[in-house]
Design goal:
The chain is an alpha/beta fold. It has 7 helices and 7 strands.
């Protein structure tokens, strides 16, 4: 029997994310991070398909990885309306059911914060990307080193954040995780998203190359 927190995570939280992270609030960042995607794309944390309208014309197909059946159901209309072929291929970013070097580009938007084994997930993305393939990401994480007060607040709130938001971490160092997985970051911007508290909105947006 699924308990109250299980029902919340599986049924309620995907709907909250669909509203809170919808096109009105995150559309410009999604369009920015999707620029340059092409060929076969693997998208980790597909969610309710909010990125679908942002795919460039050069995208041929999308291998969607999404653990939530509720989120995938919410994505149905966006998937059906997309000119790009989208297939749900797996549930876990740390175990991609894709062959080596079979994807041209990869995408992750506000997802690395929730994957339990994020290091393995990034290693998996490198495995399935072709040499020279690019990983496009926008993620929230630990505030910049110049803001120790915000960092301390994030560390204090991190356990509560994980409990309320499906395992979401506030304290991951996104750029370090990407480079530690063997990617070479070619472009990166670290900033606070306007309109949100700093402890929630320290974003890293970038592109990394798989050697």
């Amino acid at each position: 029997m699924v308990g109250p927190m299980g029902l919340y995570t599986e049924r309620v939280l995907p709907r909250l994310i669909d509203v809170a992270c919808g096109p009105k609030s995150t559309g410009p960042r999604r369009a920015q991070v999707c620029a340059g995607l092409h060929g076969r794309v693997v998208e980790v944390g597909f969610g309710s398909g909010i990125n679908v309208p942002c795919y460039p014309a050069e995208v041929e197909s999308v291998a969607a990885v999404e653990p939530s059946d509720t989120a995938w159901a919410l994505a149905a209309d966006r998937v059906a309306a997309s000119p790009v072929r989208i297939e749900r291929v797996g549930l876990d970013g740390a175990h991609l059911p894709l062959g080596d070097h079979t994807c041209d580009t990869a995408l992750s938007t506000w997802t690395l914060c929730t994957i339990p084994d994020v290091e393995h997930a990034l290693t998996e993305l490198r495995r399935v990307l072709k040499p020279g393939g690019t990983f496009h990401f926008v993620e929230h994480g630990l505030a910049p080193e110049g803001d120790p007060k915000v960092q301390r607040l994030q560390h204090r709130l991190d356990p509560l954040q994980q409990r309320l938001f499906g395992g979401c971490h506030l304290t991951r160092r996104i750029a370090d995780l990407v480079t530690d997985a063997g990617f070479v970051i070619s472009d990166v911007d670290v900033f606070y998203e306007s309109g949100s508290p700093k402890f929630l909105s320290a974003d890293t947006l970038g592109v990394a190359v798989s050697p």
